[in-house]
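Re: the 381-residue chain
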Amino acid sequence: MTTNTRIQLRLLAVALAGFTFGFTLVMNAVPASAAGMSRLAVESAYRQFIDDFWPRARRAGIDRSTYRRAFSAKAPDWKVIERLHNQPEFKSRPADYIARRVSEKRISAGVEKGRMHARLLRALQAKYGVNRHILLAIWGMESNYGTHMGNHNVIRALSTLAVAGGRYRRYARKQLLAALKIIQAGDIAPAQMRGSWAGAMGHTQFIPTTYLGYAVDITKDGRRDIWNSQADALASAANYLKRRGWRRGLPWGWKVSVPAKARRLVGRRHARSIRAWEKLGVRPVLARSFYARTARAWLVRLPGAGHYLVTRNFRALLAYNNAKTYAVAVGLLADAIARAASRPPANLPVARARKADISPREKALLRELAAQAAESTATVK
């Protein structure tokens, strides 16, 4: 064997070792595994994953025809990978987050949706015990009342994360199995199963495992359709909150002013009755007074956004999204929608709630409510 031949063989071995190492990174989905990989290598790993995941799906009860229909796309979702590796480097300040979400536009849309679906919302409130304005607020927060439900193919998005998702890999594979079960049950066709880059679906943005556990066919048409049926979606959210501990007639909480002597009593370990908080000088900022005074409550503080006295229903909101800022924003939006809905003339037709037709009086009211919500995030002195 000549010297040149030995050199060429060594170079080939190095190249093969490099390819094997890169492929292993993709399949093991270490953090940022797709970064630095060639497009060809990621596509190859994705196709290999489709083959390798089949035995696990079969053990979970998925039949071959369902699996083939679900995986009609043989290439990863590159927008998912782009989103995964270009996450914001900082989180919004609580006050900014709340101000953007409890906006005049979102309050107005919530009032309109509340009028359009008044009978449904009252029926859901009676059935599940969840305040109808909370349901409207979750709908508004999750998908902007159905206008932003996500346009990713959920199977493709989750399988992309399962291959190249780094810390999302285990989550994605679990959700992928659940999504396949939803398809096999006939609730939605693979092509119509659309959602966010991380697999959240429909009006209320349920991930597949949440869907399997809590989605409801309130319309009784044989399908739990959170994509096309607003009734099914809202009923599913109500069912979820109820089963995660929501108590009928109990408030989520209040924005409060807290005297200096009580500001150290933050957290659930300091929980006590609402009446006891009143005795300590804690007062609601927007509401006239507290109610359900025998219920236990505790203080939550959001840096730069003040204090909130919250109940066990706040924990149910955290089950939906385990971020205190999110749960506070849902509560404030629900309260703002309720106040806006109660104050315009009772005989105002639903069509008047559209932005183009809204009266000057209502515009002023909505500006006032949005300003109150923004003001309520200011730190109490």
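The chain has two domains: 5-86+150-200, 93-147+245-381.
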